[in-house]
Specification:
The protein is of the alpha+beta class. It is built from two helices and six strands, in the order αββαββββ. It has a six-stranded mixed sheet with strand order 2-1-6-5-4-3. It is globular and about 65 Å long. The chain starts with a helix and ends with a strand.
Length: about 130
């Protein structure tokens, strides 16, 4: 096999691997965003890392996976999202993905930042920030 063919095969395989990782990150982030958008917070739990820093109105604490689920359930039961709108999202590197969104609740307008990182063969939530505007 000549060098050009080897390079082409290597390049093609690299593109396939990167596009698969990107698609997986997008699907998992979309699952999380839709769970928040439609107030199905129980579905977020399967994506939480073992320990997750959660900031609500500039008060941050680190929570275990179970505690984080309870904190999110409590917040969203008191502040059900309406008019959920993704403002920005991206993949700053091959192992991270973030989304920033705004949503209205009966108690005011909030923004949410969600960071997911690759862990083993999937993406997990590494941080959530929710702040009232």
């Amino acid at each position: 096999m000549n060098n050009l063919l080897k390079r082409f095969i290597l390049f093609t395989c690299s593109i396939f691997i990167l596009s698969t990782a990107f698609a997986q990150a997008n699907k998992q982030m979309d699952d999380v965003i839709n769970a928040v958008r439609y107030n199905r917070i129980g579905e977020v739990g399967k994506y939480l890392d073992n320990f997750v820093p959660i900031t609500i109105n500039n008060k941050q604490s680190n929570y275990s996976q179970n505690q984080a689920q309870l904190v999110l359930n409590d917040f969203f039961s008191k502040n059900p999202p309406r008019d959920f709108s993704v403002m920005n999202s991206g993949m700053p590197n091959n192992t991270s993905k973030f989304t920033i969104a705004d949503f209205n609740t009966p108690n005011g307008k909030y923004n949410i930042y969600i960071l997911m990182r690759q862990k083993d063969n999937s993406y997990v939530i590494k941080e959530i920030r929710i702040n009232k505007e």
